[in-house]
Each structure stands twice: as C-alpha cells, then as structure tokens.
Amino acid sequence: MLTTRFSTQATRHSDPSVHWAKDPWTLSFLDPWNYNKFPGSFSFDKIFIADSFSCRLDKGTHRAIKRFRKFANIVSKNNTKTCWILKCDIKKFFANIDHEILSKSLKEYISDEDIVWLLNEVIDSFNTKPNIGLPLGNLTSQLFVNVYMNKFDQFMKHKLKAKYYIRYADDFAIFSENKNYLEKMIPEISDFLETELKLKLYPNKVFIKTLSAGVDFLGWINFLRSQGFADKHQKKNDKKDARKL
C-alpha cells in the first residue's frame, strides 16, 4: 500500500474564515470557484496560462497528468520519435515565498487598498524567516502561489518559447525532441527564479530523461504506453540522473 507523509502548518489566525479572507467577495479575486458568484470582481484565473494545474477550476492532478501524456504524444509523434523531458522542482517552495514580491504581484491587479491590506494580513500571518514563507497545506497558500508563479509561467511561454510546458505548483516539465535545447534552458530558468522570485531549483530533482526511460510527474511514472506509482527505487534513479547534469 502506498503511503505518503507530509506536514501542514498553521498561521497565527485561529479563525478559518480568515483564510477565506473573511469576505468571500475578497477571495473571489483569487479563487475561480467563487468568482462567478460575485460579478464585477477580478479573477486572477483569467491571466494564468492554460497549463498551470494546481488549485484551479477544471484543472487538478488528473488533468495535469493527462496533459503530460498529451504533450509526450505530440513531441514523440505518437511514440515514433525520441521525446526528451526536462523535469524540475523548486527547493522548499512554500517556505521560500517572498512576501514583498507576492504583495507587489497582487497590487498589480487589485486596485482596492482595503482588499490588498486584508490579503497582506493573511500573507504576513505566517513566516519561516522574516517576511518569507507561506504555510504548507493552507488553501490561501495554494491560491497565492498561483499568483506568485504566474510571472514565471509567462517567462517560460513568451521569453523562452517553451511550447510544451506544464506546471503543478512547484513541479514543472518541458518537452522537446532536442536534448541540447533543454540543457541550455536550465541556467536561464535558474537565473530567473533566483533573480525575480528569490527561489532556487532543487539540484537533486532537476533531470532530463526520455519518456521511454520513465519520468516521474506528480507521483506517477510515465512511460511510452503506461503509467504507475513512483517508488523509492525510481526516485533514487532520478537523483542519479540529476547529478549527471
């Protein structure tokens, strides 16, 4: 039986309603589930790329894996060509979210100062270091990181022209027939994350593999014609591949 252990974290606010920003109209700025209930409010979901799958309406893990498979089939031309996949993970993602950068991103789209203030209250209610970090497992954290990472998504799609790019929270992958193209992309990705978002790639979780060798994405090992749960043996092999880059 597959078991997964993870820890969640709490903020100083004991009232769960704070994490729905007290006023549901306020959260409609972030949450696509609430957006249609409050006409006139701005929805960040409108500005996100189609291939960002975490905590969004009609997205989620299963659709992300399905999209992963579709990209693999397109790039491999239905398994007739070699499909290379650059797989990356961000080190201690939620623990390293910069409050100032997040707040600035929110202000770019929200003009109401009272709403910005309330959202900042939620953001500043937790930190791993001064002005750094979001609580793991909180709904607001998942919504906030979608806003935070949107700048990176736009960079990947429009600056690096990564046509076959998919992201789920801190887990992302790029598909190509050209391995060298993916190798050259790594330092550009790393530089952008560190310079613009103060985040770092997880060295042991960055690798380039062929689909035929099996690629772990969101806990599933994806092969040319099958899938299976990721196991410890596969993850050890991924770390070996990462050290070779």
Report what the structure shows.
The protein has eight helices and seven strands. The protein is of the alpha+beta class and 245 residues long. It has a four-stranded antiparallel beta sheet, with helices on both faces. β6 (220-222) and β7 (227-229) form a beta hairpin. The longest helix has 21 residues, at 139-159.
Summarize model confidence as the mean pLDDT: 81
Low-confidence stretches: 1-8, 19-25, 35-40, 227-234
Helix content: 25-40%
Supply the helix-strand structural class: alpha+beta
Q: Element order, helices and strands?
A: HHHEHHHEEHEEEEH
Characteristic terms for this protein:
alpha+beta, three-stranded antiparallel beta sheet, disordered N terminus, four-stranded antiparallel beta sheet, single chain, 245 residues, elongated, 12% strand
Helices and strands in order:
Blueprint: H1 24-27, H2 32-35, H3 61-75, E1 84-89, H4 99-107, H5 113-123, H6 139-159, E2 165-168, E3 171-176, H7 179-196, E4 207-210, E5 215-217, E6 220-222, E7 227-229, H8 232-244
Antiparallel strand pairs: 1-3, 1-4, 2-3, 5-6, 6-7
Helix pairs in contact: 4-5, 4-6
Question: Short summary of the structure?
Answer:
By secondary structure, the protein is α+β, with helices and mostly antiparallel strands.
